[in-house]
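Q: What residues go here?
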């Protein structure tokens, strides 16, 4: 990475951190510490160490972003229990610091199970490719198109014999949501959970982040 790239990354991370952290106390956390250390190493000519600190700051910011997205997940439907949202950060630079969040739902006293995942694709070019591939898959597998209020078209597939199915949707420029289910009564359960997502909050977050 060149000096120009490192310097640009430091400036961008500083701006992102300031917009992501709302209080003065929060500004003293590990994220801003990593950014400051990156700038110090850069000024001293230690580009390797500066780059390492940039990587650390980017990961910390991604974790903060993940925490915000986790709040948009639907609550458990009536008669179901939801586990806490878990998150993983894709540290590969080619993915642009992608974030994957997962929440599992289980039917109380039954065998029904659903896994909902939200993917924040950090690389816009990669997001465009995934969108195209998923659209082609939906057409090839003849999925049903279901309009989701405030989000666009969802693509659902349900096997009535096996009582399994899944639904997915792209919303915004880089948000991909999918829900997989087994031992459920109908595709309506999938549609109901997806429709309960807080898409208004997602739209606000993607327009400001």
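A:
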């Amino acid at each position: 990475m060149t000096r120009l790239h490192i310097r640009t990354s430091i400036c961008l991370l500083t701006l992102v951190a300031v917009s992501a952290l709302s209080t003065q106390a929060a500004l003293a956390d590990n994220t801003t510490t990593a950014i400051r250390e990156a700038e110090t190493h850069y000024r001293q000519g230690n580009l390797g160490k500066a780059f390492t600190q940039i990587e650390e700051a980017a990961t910390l910011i991604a974790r903060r972003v993940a925490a915000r997205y986790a709040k948009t997940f639907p609550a458990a439907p009536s008669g179901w229990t939801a586990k806490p949202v878990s998150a993983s950060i894709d540290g590969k630079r080619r993915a642009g610091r992608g974030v994957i969040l997962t929440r599992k739902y289980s039917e109380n006293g039954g065998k029904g199970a659903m896994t909902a995942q939200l993917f924040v694709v950090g690389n816009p070019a990669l997001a465009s490719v995934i969108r195209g591939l998923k659209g082609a898959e939906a057409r090839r597998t003849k999925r049903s198109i279901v309009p989701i209020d405030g989000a666009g078209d969802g693509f659902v597939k349900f096997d009535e014999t096996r009582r399994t199915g899944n639904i997915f949707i792209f919303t915004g420029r880089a948000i991909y949501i999918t829900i997989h289910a087994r031992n459920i009564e109908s595709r309506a359960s999938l549609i109901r959970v997806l429709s309960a997502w807080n898409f208004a909050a997602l739209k606000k977050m993607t327009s400001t982040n």
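A: Context that may help when evaluating the design: The chain has two domains: 3-64, 71-208. The mean pLDDT is 79.
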